[in-house]
Amino acid sequence: MSSKKENLLIFTLVILWYSSNIGVILLNKYLLSNYGFKFPIFLTMCHMAACAVLSYVSIVLLKITPHQMIKSRPQFIKIATLSVVFCGSVVGGNISLRYLAVSFNQAVGATTPFFTALFAYMATLKREAWVTYAALVPVVAGVVIASGGEPSFHFFGFIMCLSATAARAFKSVLQGILLSSEGEKLNSMNLLLYMSPIAVLVLLPAVLIMEPDVMDVTMSLGREHKSMWLLLLLNSFTAYAANLSNFLVTKHTSALTLQVLGNAKGAVAVVISILLFRNPVTVVGMAGYTITVLGVAAYGETKRRFR
Predict the structure, then answer these.
(1) For residue 256, what are the domain limits?
(2) What's the structural domain count of the chain?
(3) For the chain, how big is the Rg over CA atoms in Å?
């Protein structure tokens, strides 16, 4: 492929990655906070069901990436463990969107490197260079500042968002430990293929117990708003597109490029959410978020230099 076509492909993939990631966050917020659909566990189950079906289509039928098989029972147990942790992170994130503005949700989510470094040290006792840990100080300090300047701060929403961020970091560390041997490594799309149906099975009883009226309310909303089912379907497809585009961007760019793009993506999501939902923001809140993003960028740079 010529460099011009390769650059065009990368640009297209980045646009898809940005739009799908930001789109699923905004759709989740709209459904859970502005639409009267208060079922974050069921919404997560819809996402996982779509990921299960579309992963099968992409990998087995369209062969976007080679199909990797599960080779042993221990490997399956490891994948199931990752799936449960992944469920926790997505459900927690969706619950937090019921109570928090997207801008603040993204600020808290930006602290993922802090939790990743913490869990990695606890699991392996491997220390990074001191400057790497120093770069995490503004990551946490920025969120503390943003919390103080957040007009619509909600403690339960904050705890759920923090828990989701920690679970997301824990899943990445756990994945590196559990699937570290060459014979067990799976790329992100094959891992999603196996994790998604397990997640659906885990979430189904949780929905039946914790959200027993979900079908009645959803049917009622569907009769009242004809776009209800389309929104749910679009949301679920967008959730899968976010995973697929993340995989493809990773495949066609470097880890450093992905990190820089990821930092910018959070900032773009904040701006778009403020314009769409008109949630009040303060100078202190935006300053806190900016400090966090700069801290994340500094952390990534120190990791690259001192690894």
Answers:
(1) 3-306
(2) 1
(3) 19
